Automatic annotation (TrEMBL):
Catalytic activity annotation: a primary alcohol + NADP(+) = an aldehyde + NADPH + H(+)
Pfam families: ADH_N (PF08240), ADH_zinc_N (PF00107)
Family: Belongs to the zinc-containing alcohol dehydrogenase family.
GO molecular function terms noted in the UniProt entry: alcohol dehydrogenase (NADP+) activity; zinc ion binding
UniProt-listed Enzyme Commission number(s): 1.1.1.2
SUPFAM superfamilies noted in UniProt: GroES-like, NAD(P)-binding Rossmann-fold domains
Domain of life from the UniProt record: Bacteria
Name of the protein in its database record: alcohol dehydrogenase (NADP(+))
Keywords: Metal-binding, Oxidoreductase, Zinc
Keyword Oxidoreductase: yes
Magnesium keyword on record: no
Amino acid sequence: MRTVTGYAAYGPHEQLRPLEFTRRDLRPDDVAVRVTHVGVCHSDLHAVEALAAGSPPLVPGHEFTGEVTAVGAEVTRFRVGDPVAVGNIVDSCGRCDNCLAHREPYCREFPSTTYGGRDLHDGSPTQGAYSTEYVARDAFVYALPAGLDPAAVAPLMCAGVTTWAPLRRAGVGPGQSVGVVGLGGLGHLAVKFAVALGARVTVFTTSAAKADDARALGAHDVVVSTDAAAMAAVAGRLDFVLDTASGAHDLAPYLGALRLDGTLCVLGLPEKYEVSPMALLGRTLTVSGSGGTAETQEMLEFCGEHGITADVEVLPFAEVNTAFERLARNDVRYRFVLAVAG
C-alpha cells in the first residue's frame, strides 16, 4: 500500500484536519499521480455538510492536476514525470451501452467517483485528491495540455467539462445565439467556451455589477434577470441557454428567451423543477451531468488550442479551511485551487 497525507472532513460544520491514509498498490492499468493542484468545488462543501455524525473521515477533491509517479505494468499512455489531470470519475464498468459510448458518468452500474464512492474491484471507499497522491485507472487520466497553467486546468476537470459537454451536444457554433445563466465557477467557463466556439453570448445575471466581468470574459450582451423590460427584450432570441445557477429558481423566463425549437439545459439539481407546460411549448428542457472520457479529452484539446483555463485563486494546501469558509460565502472569483505540492 502507498502511504499518503491529506485533509479529511470528520463531520458537518467541522474544520478539515490532516489525515494519513493509504492508497492501493498499483493494478496493471493504474497510474499514480503526485497531486500538485486540486480545485475546491461547491460539491465538496455540500459533501462535507451532508456527513452524518460518526461517519468515517472523508477526503474531498475531484478535480486535480499533477505528475505521474508510477504506472502499472499494462499502462502505455503515460510514463513517470508526465503532467496529467484527473476529474470526478475514476472508473466505470466499461461494458454497458453508456460506457461503450464514452458517457461513463451514466454507467448503468454506477461509476466509481473520485471520492465518496466505491472501488469497483474491492468495494473499498474512494478518498479524494485533497491529498499528496492519487491512484486512478489510466483510462480516466488525461495528458495536461502543453502551455496551460496546471492550477487553472484543475477546475476544467469538473466545472469545465460539465459546461463543455452540453454546449458540444447542442452543436453550439458560429451563427448561434447562446445564453448563460449565472457567472460563477461554471458560468464563467461556459461563457469562455461558447465565445470560443463562435456563438454570440448573452449572460443572464441577477447582479448588474457583474456586467463588466461578463464582457471581459467575452460576452456580447448582459441581461439583468430581475429587469422585466430587459428580459422581455431578449424573448425569443436565443437558440440555446445553459443554466448554471445552482439554487432553485424560475425557469420560465429562460425558456421564454428561446426561439422556437430552442433548448434550455439546466446544470443545477434542486429537489424539483416547477415548469408550466405552456412555457415548454415548442421548446426543450433538459438536465445535464458531467462529461465522459471522450468529451473530457476533446475539451482539454480545445482548451490547449484556444488557451482556455479557469480563473482561479490559488491558496496553500494548509489553507483548505479558509477556502471552504470563503466558498460558503461565495467569496471567490471564480474558483479556489489548493497548491498541494511545493
